[in-house]
Structures are given as C-alpha cells and as structure tokens.
Amino acid sequence: MPLYDARLRCGILAKCAAMQARRAVNIGSNDHRRRILTPMILAEPALDLIFRQARTHNGWLDRAVDDETLRALYDLLKWGPTSANCSPARIIFVRPRQAKERLRPALSVGNLEKTMAAPVTAIIGHDLHFYDKLPRLFPHTDARSWFAGKEEASRTTAFRNGTLQGAYLIIAARALGLDCGPMSGFDHAKVDAEFFPGGTVKSNFLCNLGYGDPAKLFARNPRLPFDEACQVL
Amino acid sequence: MPLYDARLRCGILAKCAAMQARRAVNIGSNDHRRRILTPMILAEPALDLIFRQARTHNGWLDRAVDDETLRALYDLLKWGPTSANCSPARIIFVRPRQAKERLRPALSVGNLEKTMAAPVTAIIGHDLHFYDKLPRLFPHTDARSWFAGKEEASRTTAFRNGTLQGAYLIIAARALGLDCGPMSGFDHAKVDAEFFPGGTVKSNFLCNLGYGDPAKLFARNPRLPFDEACQVL
After folding, report:
1. Predicted TM-score of the model (pTM)
2. Do A50 and B171 touch (CB under 8 A)?
3. Bridge-partner residues for B91, per DSSP?
4. What are phi and psi for residue B92, nearest 5 degrees?
5. Three-state secondary structure call for residue A54
6. Model confidence at A38, in pLDDT bands (50, 70, 90)?
7. Burial status of residue A202 (CB atoms within 10 A of its CB: 0-12, 13-18, 19 or more)
8. Contact: B32, A87; criterion CB under 8 Å
9. Distance between the two ends of chain B, CA-based, in angstroms?
C-alpha cells in the first residue's frame, strides 16, 4: 500500500496526523462552541503543498502511479460539491504506452512530449446524460426532471460541474503528493471519438499525473492582484 | 489578524506547522531524491477538512467574515492553475444587507433564505475579455492572439477556467476554516445586469461563505463508486 508506506516513511507528518486525529476526537466529544472559537485551518506547509508552492509540471521522474493511488485520488475528489450532487465527471486514467499512443493524434505539439512521458494522463470528461443517475445521487426529489430533455441546461451543468470536479482532482492529487500538468489544448473531437465513443460523454481537459521533475519547471507567471480580480461590497 | 489568532489558539495545528516547516527546510537543503522517496502528503484530518468531512452548508452561525480573510482566500485560490495562466475569474464578495438585497430578485426560492442569511455571498464570474491581460499573465508569447476575436474559444476558455478557479475558492475557503454553500440555481441575466453591468463579465455560480451551523446540515448524499465514474486503462 504505497500511500501508507509513504506516510509512514514521513515520520513528522505521521506524528502530526496522530495529533490532529486526537484533536478531532476532542472536537467531536464537545459541543459546537469549541469549533466556533477554534476553527480548524490547514497549517502553512499544507497550504503550500496544495496551492502556494504547487506548480504545473512538464517533466516527470521515473516513478509509477499505481492503481491504489488513483482510487485514493477519486475517493477524495468525489466529495467535492456539485449542483444537486450531479457528479457528471467521467475520468479515464491512461497509463500504458499503447493507450497513450491512442492520445497522440489529438495532442498539440507543445503538449505532446510531456504527455507521452507522464506516468498517467487523466482524461476528464463529463456525461451529458448525468441526470439519469440523479434518482440515486439526489433521491429526495425528482431532480432528473430539471435536466432531462433540456439540452442547453444539461450541457452547461455537465460542463460546469465536471470542471469543478476536475479542479478537485488537481487539488486532491497534490494533497496525495502527486504533481499535475493540466491541459485544454488538444483536439476534443478526436479524444471523444477514441475514448468516449458512446457520444454522451465529452472530453473537458487532460491532466498529466506523476511525480514532477523540479528541474524542468518553467519560471512562475504572476497572478492578478486582489483588487483587479475581486471586489468587496 | 484573526487568521493567525485562530491558528495560535489551535495549538496542535500550530505545532504541526512548525514541525512541517522544519521538514520543508530539510527538503530544501537536500537533493531531490529525498522528496522522491518521501513525498509530502496531507495528514488525514487535513483531507477530512477540505474533502471528506466538508459539507455544503445551509445555515450560518452569527460570526462575520472579515476583509482579511477574503484577501487570504484570494491569495490562495489565485495560485491554482488555469490555461495559459489566463485567470479569468472575477469575484464580488457581497456582505452588507443592502448589497444582499440587490441579489434577492435573482435568487431561486430554495436558495433565498440561506443566501440572505450568509455572512458573505461570493459571486463567481468570468471575464470574456480575459485575454487582454495575457501579455502580463503569460508574457513569453503572444497568447492574446489565441483568443482575441475568437468568441467561442474565448467563451469556453473563460467558463472552464473561471469554474476551475471557483472550485479553488471552495477548497481554499475550507482550508481557511470557512464553510461553503455553492449554488448555480439563480437568474444569471439578472445578476449580470446588476453586478457586472459592463457586459464582458458573466456570472457563473454563487457561493455562500461563513461558519456553518452543523445543526442545519442535510443528510449527505451518496457518491458514485470508482468503477462507475472512472476507468483505468
């Protein structure tokens, strides 16, 4: 079980986990006031790991990503919120060389080499007929009727929520020690024909996954300052 | 500085932060091999905080969210990856009662009361003319020309990447101890006319922010099992 091995080898984080677990038990056994006064927040290195120091990777170390890690990844990202719990993302993890070759014709020149070299390439798609699962995913009302037969609403909802789930995948991967290389520059129709031949699932973006080679990072680009992207009323 | 106060009160997390910071320094002073053998991953309670135990909230405790927290939120979410660093999200944090009243006519009945009661409602929009900032955000090539005058590509890119940034906002908020209540069921045209009158920014979804009242949570809905949402090739 590589994930747990990794954590055991990382003694300090394991100790933190144990301490935080005890704290969680304490919170659970008290009333809500304690949580109100002391909301749990992530420690600075955790914020660095998932946001501040995380980078989009272009080169990959020679280290595989196993099935168990991919399942752990889904078992985190699945909890992220979607509209009426509609969960439209459909993800194909492409790993072996011969499967990667099926991606090659759809890749842009700039994304080709790094994608062929990545341990895994996740194809994040969304199911336009996601509403057929709503009686199970959102059982207390007839949410299926909000979307069935309403093509534009379904398409927008599938794209919006599948994209949210793609972002949860990126953050969850980083939380599990993986690095990401997301890309939307590819031939969507070719990917759909090759990987989603049923026609109701549409590709959204690709995300290389693995352990990034820091030596192959580009310089980091600036972000917009708060006042250019946000207003507080 | 409320964020830091909260962390100081939370002694165990502060201790973990210090231990992890020392570890980070150790990693920095070694070669890459050490990181390869022991990738840093989030501890279990941290995964609980941002994914597994986090819930969409409908009721809010009587506790304000201050400007500094909103700036800290943006200073995390801004680091999440977007296509060519295009960063199209434009966010309005709606806090005072009179500004909330401007939202009221656009809200669906089911979302009305909880949104009026939330300490902050974030309107997550995306700028269709995001490409005008690319010479600054992605300066090493003429990325503006990939989008300027190409309305469909621009619209799709703005929506996809603004949505990714909306998901980063949700996870970053949880990482800072906030609770979220995201919603896409509202009258987008009314919100655009009232809050984005320039016409180039389009509303995507709303997200209530505050400290959730656990007593007002709904029962959690199930998620799709791995094999229904994912394939491993």
Report:
1. 0.86
2. yes
3. A230, B124
4. -115, 120
5. coil
6. low
7. buried
8. no
9. 49
